[in-house]
Amino acid sequence: MTDIDATFAAADAADETATLTPGQVFRRRMFGHTGFLIGAGLIALIALVAIFAPLLAPHDPFAQSLSTRMLPPAWVDGGTWDHIFGTDQNGRDYLSRLIYGTRVSITIGIGAATIGLLIGVTLGVLAGYFGGWVDHGISFLLTAQLALPGLLLAMALVFIIGPSIWVVIGIVGVLHWTYYLVVTRSATQRIRNLDFVAAAAASGANPRQIIWHEILPNLFSSIIVIFTFELGIAILAESSLSFLGVGIQPPTPSWGLMIAEGKQAMFYRPWLVILPGVCLFLLVIGANLMGDGLRDITSPEGRNE
Question: Is the pTM of this model over 0.70?
Answer without folding.
Answer: yes
